[in-house]
Specification:
Layout lengths: L3 H4 L2 H4 L3 H15 L2 H9 L6 H23 L5 E3 L3 H10 L6 H20 L3 H7 L2 H22 L3 E4 L3 E4 L4 H18 L5 H22 L26 H4 L5 H26 L12 H18 L4 E3 L3 H6 L5 H11 L6 H4 L4 H15 L11 H17 L2 H18 L8 H17 L1
Antiparallel strand pairs: 1-4, 2-3
Helix pairs in contact: 3-16, 4-5, 5-14, 5-16, 6-13, 7-13, 7-14, 9-18, 9-19, 9-20, 10-11, 10-18, 11-18, 13-21, 19-20, 20-21
C-alpha cells in the first residue's frame, strides 16, 4: 500500500506532510463561512436550515476529498456563492418553483456536466463565451450578493417613489456596519479565517445588543440555542424532484445553472493554477484540468441528491496554495475539516442574518475585481458586458443578465460586420438563450 507521500507525489511536487496539512487548514479557514452562509441563503426558500447545513458540510467534504484523490490538486470545493443566490432568489422565489424541483434541476445540470466533462465539450463551451461577458457576469453576481446582504439588514428598502431607498438607522444596521468594518479590517490585514472571525464577532455583538433592546422593553432579535450538539438532519437528503425538473419549462434554469457553474469552475481553475504554478507546459492549461472538471461535475450532482445548490471549486483555495500546498492532500485535509460541523447545527443556526450580511457584501467586492479586465473603450465588447453586469442585480435574476448579454453581443457583432468573431458554439448558446426567454414567459 502506498504511503501518503508516495500517493500524492510529495517529492516530485517539492512538499511535505506538515506543509500540506497547514495548507489544508488555511484553505478551510478561508471557505468555512459557507457552512453558515449557504443554509442562511437557501433557508429563504423554506428549506430547513439544519438540513441544508448538513448537506453543505457533506457535499463540501466529499467533493474536496475527491478533488485531492482523483485530480491531485489542492482545490477545495463547496456550494458556490452566486449559484446559491440563483437557486434561492431566481429559481424558487423568482420563478415560483418549489425547492425540491430546484434540487432536481441541480442534479440534472450535474449529470449534463459529467457528460460534457467526459466528452471534453465543457472547455469548448467556455472558450466560445466572450471574455468580457464572463467577467461582467462574475461581477454582476457579486453585486447581486451585495444587494441581498444590504437588503437583509434593512440598509436598502423598497421605496414606491424611487424603487429603492435607504432604510434608516436601526440597531440591526449599526450591528451590520460594525461587523462590516471589523471584517474588512481583518481581510485587509490578511488574517486567517477573517470571514469566519467576522461572523462570530458580529453574532456576539448582535446577541449583546439584542439583550439590551429586550431589557429596554423592545423586541429582541437573537436567542441562544438550547443545545450545542445534535445529530445530523436528513430533512433535505434525496428530496429532489427529478420528474418536475424534466419539464420543458425547466430548460431555462438548467441552462442558467450550467453557465453559472461553468464560469465559476473554469475561472477558479485558471486563477488558482496561475498562483500555484499548476500549468501544463505543453498545453498551457491547468494540470489535470479534465479530472478536476469531472470532480466539479460530480460535486454538482451530489449537491442535487443531498439537498443544496451546486458545488464548485473555490477561489479561496489560493490561500492554501500560498501556504505551500502543492498536492491533493491539501484538498483532502480541507474536506476532512468540514466533517465535525455536521454535529454543530444548533450552535450554527443561532448565527443571525445580520452576522452573515457583511460577508455577502465583502464577497461582492471580491467578485467585481474582474471588471478591470473588460475592454471598456471597445464599445462592441463593453455594451453587452455592462448590460449583463447591471441586469443581474436590477432584475434580481442571474439568468436575465446572462441571456441578454449573449444576445446583445451577437446582434451588435452582426450589425457592425464582425460576423466572423461569433464562434459556432455561441450561436447554439444564443438559441438556448432565446428558448429560455420564450419558455420563461
Amino acid at each position: 500500500m502506498k504511503s501518503i507521500a508516495a500517493f500524492f507525489d510529495f517529492q516530485k511536487r517539492g512538499t511535505n506532510l506538515k506543509t500540506e496539512v497547514l495548507a489544508g487548514v488555511a484553505t478551510f479557514l478561508t471557505m468555512a463561512y459557507i457552512i453558515v452562509v449557504n443554509p442562511g441563503i437557501l433557508s429563504a426558500t423554506g428549506m430547513p436550515f439544519e438540513g441544508v447545513l448538513f448537506a453543505t458540510v457533506v457535499v463540501s467534504a466529499i467533493s474536496s476529498i475527491l478533488m485531492g484523490l482523483v485530480a491531485n490538486l489542492p482545490f477545495g470545493l463547496a456550494p458556490g456563492m452566486g449559484i446559491n443566490a440563483f437557486f434561492a432568489y431566481t429559481l424558487v422565489l423568482g420563478m415560483g418553483m418549489n425547492w425540491e424541483t430546484a434540487l432536481g434541476a441541480v442534479f440534472i445540470s450535474g449529470i449534463i456536466f459529467v457528460i460534457l466533462s467526459l466528452l471534453k465539450i465543457r472547455e469548448a463551451i467556455v472558450r466560445a463565451i466572450p471574455a468580457g461577458i464572463r467577467y461582467a457576469v462574475a461581477a454582476g453576481i457579486g453585486l447581486f450578493l451585495a444587494l441581498i446582504g444590504l437588503k437583509s439588514v434593512g440598509f436598502i428598502v423598497y421605496n414606491p417613489a424611487t424603487v429603492v431607498g435607504f432604510g434608516g438607522v436601526t440597531p440591526v444596521l449599526i450591528i451590520f456596519l460594525v461587523g462590516f468594518v471589523l471584517t474588512s479590517v481583518l481581510v485587509i490585514k490578511k488574517t486567517k479565517g477573517a470571514l469566519v472571525i467576522g461572523i462570530a464577532a458580529t453574532s456576539l455583538l448582535a446577541f449583546v445588543i439584542s439583550l439590551i433592546v429586550e431589557a429596554s422593553g423592545g423586541q429582541g432579535f437573537v436567542s441562544l440555542p438550547d443545545r450545542i450538539f445534535a445529530l445530523p438532519s436528513l430533512e433535505v437528503f434525496f428530496q429532489l424532484d427529478i420528474a418536475g425538473a424534466l419539464s420543458a419549462g425547466m430548460i431555462l434554469p438548467i441552462f442558467s445553472l450550467l453557465f453559472t457553474d461553468l464560469f465559476d469552475s473554469i475561472s477558479t481553475f485558471v486563477g488558482v493554477a496561475e498562483v500555484g504554478g499548476f500549468i501544463d507546459e505543453k498545453t498551457g492549461e491547468p494540470e489535470n484540468v479534465g479530472k478536476a472538471l469531472l470532480v466539479d461535475a460530480i460535486g454538482t450532482t451530489l449537491s442535487g441528491l443531498l439537498g443544496t445548490s451546486s458545488a464548485t471549486t473555490y477561489i479561496e483555495s489560493a490561500a492554501g496554495v500560498e501556504e505551500g500546498g502543492k498536492t491533493g492532500f491539501t484538498a483532502v485535509v480541507t474536506g476532512l475539516l468540514f466533517l465535525p460541523f455536521m454535529f454543530l447545527s444548533p450552535v450554527l443556526s443561532f448565527i443571525p442574518e445580520v452576522a452573515t450580511a457583511p460577508v455577502l457584501v465583502l464577497i461582492g467586492i471580491f467578485m467585481v475585481t474582474p471588471l478591470t479586465k473588460i475592454k471598456w473603450n471597445q464599445f462592441d465588447e463593453a455594451i453587452p458586458a455592462f448590460l449583463g453586469l447591471i441586469l443581474i442585480p436590477l432584475t434580481y435574476s442571474i439568468t436575465q443578465g446572462i441571456v441578454w448579454a449573449f444576445l446583445v453581443w451577437t446582434v451588435i457583432k452582426v450589425l457592425i460586420g464582425k460576423f466572423k468573431e461569433i464562434p459556432p458554439m455561441l450561436w447554439i448558446i444564443d438559441v438556448f438563450a432565446i428558448l429560455s426567454l420564450i419558455l420563461g414567459h
